[in-house]
């Protein structure tokens, strides 16, 4: 089972930010430097779109996990 601690919560939040930032950078690069083929350009755009959507989704799921009563007791010892 996944042990949800302060360190793992911090890592999940950092991962969500990294995924979101990567999606934005990928979309900007796709818009600025158009690729030669339409098909590869659309794959890059769709991948960037999925990354931009999955970043906040991961962050929201981390918050929901942290608010569960069983997990909240373990997180009370975290430094805020």
Q: What does this entry show, briefly?
A:
This protein has about 80 residues and is an all-alpha fold. It has helices spanning about 5-30, 40-65, 70-75.
List the helices and strands and how they pair.
Elements: H1 6-32, H2 38-67, H3 69-75
Helix pairs in contact: 1-2
3D structure, described in words:
- The chain is mostly helical.
- 80% of the residues lie in helices and 0% in strands.
- It has helices spanning 6-32, 38-67, 69-75.
- Helix 1 (6-32) runs antiparallel to helix 2 (38-67).
- The protein starts with 5 loop residues before the first helix and ends in a 5-residue tail after the last helix.
- The relative contact order is 0.19.
Mean pLDDT: 84
Percentage of residues in DSSP E strands: under 5%
Tertiary shape: elongated
Q: What's the end-to-end separation, in Å? A: 25 Å
- DSSP helical segment count: 3
Tally of strands: 0
SS-based structural class?
Answer: mainly alpha
Multimeric status of the protein: single chain
Low-confidence stretches: none
Order of helices and strands: HHH
């Amino acid at each position: 089972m996944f042990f949800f601690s302060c360190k793992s919560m911090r890592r999940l939040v950092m991962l969500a930010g990294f995924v979101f930032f990567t999606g934005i950078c990928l979309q900007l690069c796709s818009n600025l430097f158009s690729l030669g083929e339409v098909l590869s350009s659309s794959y890059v755009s769709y991948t960037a779109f999925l990354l931009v959507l999955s970043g906040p989704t991961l962050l929201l799921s981390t918050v929901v996990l942290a608010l569960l009563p069983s997990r909240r007791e373990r997180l009370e010892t975290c430094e805020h």
